[in-house]
Every structure is written in C-alpha cells, then in structure tokens.
Design goal:
By secondary structure, the chain is of the alpha/beta class. It has a single domain (6-220), classed as Vaccinia Virus protein VP39 (Rossmann fold, 3-Layer(aba) Sandwich). It is built from eight helices and seven strands. It has helices at 6-17, 22-33, 43-55, 70-77, 92-104, 118-121, 143-152, 181-195; strands at 60-64, 84-89, 111-115, 133-136, 159-162, 199-204, 210-215. The protein has a seven-stranded mixed beta sheet, with helices on both faces. β4, α7 (143-152) and β5 (159-162) form a beta-alpha-beta unit. α3 runs parallel beside α4 (70-77). The radius of gyration is 17 Å and the shape is globular. Bound molecules: S-adenosylmethionine. S-adenosylmethionine binds at residues 39-41, 65-67, 70-71, 88-91, 94, 117-118, 137-139. Residues 39-41, 65-67, 70-71, 88-91, 94, 117-118, 137-139 line the site of S-adenosylmethionine (SAM).
C-alpha cells in the first residue's frame, strides 16, 4: 500500500517487472560460494538496464566492472542475436567466474570479458566503437575519466549509465568540498553529467543511485 517503505516498494516492483530466473539466482549464488562480494546491481536495476538498452536499440554494449557477470547477463539478454557485450574486469578470478556465468546463461556467443585495468583497456576499444549503451560500475575514483571515455566511444543517442552515483545525497555535493576520493569520483561525474551540453542526464534514486545520460547530437543544436 501507500505506506510501503522504499525497500518493500522496490521488492514489489521487482516481483512484477524484474523477476529473476534460475540462471540469475545461480549467478549470485555461485559468486557468493567463490567469495566474491554481493555488490551486483539489484533486479530492478538490471531490468532498467534492459529497458534502456531496448530504448536505444543497442547492438553493442560496453560495461566497465563485470564482477561475476550478473548485470552482464541482464545486458546480454537485451541484445539481438548478432549483438555484442564487452565487459571490462581488472580481477582475473572475477573474470573466470564471468565466463562461467555467460556460458551457463547461454550468452557466451555475444558476451565477452576483457581482463585488465579499464583505463588501459578502453583506448583499445576505439576500433570497436561506437557503443550504443555504456554501463559504468567499477572503481569510483576514475568515474570522471570513465565518463570521458564513454562519451568518446558513444554515438549521438547512445545511453551512458553509471551506478553508485547518488549515495544517499553524498554523491550530489560540491566537488571542492568532497571529504574523500571515492565521493570526489561520484561528485565530479554528476557535475559533468548535469552540466555538459553534450549530455542530457538525470540521477535516479534507485539502490545507491544511477546517473543516466543520453549523448546529444551536437550538430542538431539550435
Ligand atoms: N556490474 C557488476 C554487476 O552489477 O553484476 C558489478 C561490478 S562491481 C560493483 C565492480 C567490479 O569492478 C569488480 O569486479 C572490480 O574487480 C572491478 N574493477 C575495479 N577496478 C577496476 C578497474 N580499474 N578496471 C576494471 N575493473 C575494475
């Protein structure tokens, strides 16, 4: 009812719109067994990523930060049969679990993980650009650099999503008065996303907050 807490409401919405199947449930279960922290997106966020991928008719998706492949499965499932997901992951152990997840989810034909620090892998992706959707969900300090790369690897109409950007409001404060490097990443990200005329953006209070941007066609401006 109207008195539902945010958490109950999120669960009720997820139950109706974003139910996990066995493959998704087993992905988080296997990750837990291997000692990987449960810091994947929520089902609601996974479904939001799918809706956004469909909205921009994504054929090529880039993810920064794969973990165990949970969000990667949501993303890969939004692709057409000839679509492609490239996900970047620094940790070789995580990457091997991601490969297993993609195999079990039967998206291995369209989804691949590339291992290394994202800032070293990203320049090599220019030949494979443009990406229609870019999902940023890795270490927080370089978020502004990841955004710059995302814009560079996008086309007009591409959608860029970054997770952990609102942080109960802490991610929205002043960059100059930021108390930590972690928050500086989110704050600078939101600063640019909210003010760069090359982007049309909104931050959503979903889990710890996702900032969603559409890349503008600068030649169409009046
Ligand atoms: N997107 C995943 C999901 O929802 O299922 C969750 C990603 S988790 C929050 C962040 C991941 O980014 C971790 O697996 C971590 O190892 C990886 N990571 C951290 N720093 C990185 C870097 N510099 N380059 C690439 N991946 C990095």
């Amino acid at each position: 009812g109207p008195s539902s807490t945010g958490r109950e409401l999120e669960q009720a919405i997820a139950q109706l719109f974003a139910a996990e199947d066995d493959v998704l449930r087993q992905t988080t279960e296997r990750a837990r067994e291997r000692g990987i922290p449960s810091i994947q997106v929520s089902p609601l966020q996974g479904k939001l990523l799918q809706v956004l991928a469909k909205a921009c008719q994504a054929r090529k998706i880039l993810e920064i930060g794969a973990l165990a492949g949970y969000s990667g499965i949501w993303l890969a499932r939004s692709l057409p049969a000839d679509g492609r997901l490239i996900t970047l992951e620094i940790d070789e152990m995580h990457a091997s679990v991601v490969r297993e997840s993609f195999r079990l989810a039967q998206v291995y034909d369209r989804a691949e993980v590339r291992v290394g620090p994202a800032l070293e892998t990203l320049p090599g992706l220019e030949a494979e650009a443009p990406f229609d959707l870019i999902f940023i969900d890795a270490d927080k300090e370089p978020y502004p650099q990841y955004l710059a790369w995302a814009i560079r690897l996008a086309r007009p109409g591409s959608i860029i999503v970054a997770d952990n950007c609102v942080l109960g409001g802490d991610g929205l404060g002043s960059v100059q008065e930021s108390p930590s490097q972690f928050l500086t990443g989110a704050r600078s990200y939101n600063q640019r996303a909210s003010s760069d005329p090359a982007l049309c953006s909104i931050a959503l209070p979903i889990s710890s907050g996702m900032t969603v941007s559409v890349v503008m066609d600068r030649t169409q401006e009046s």
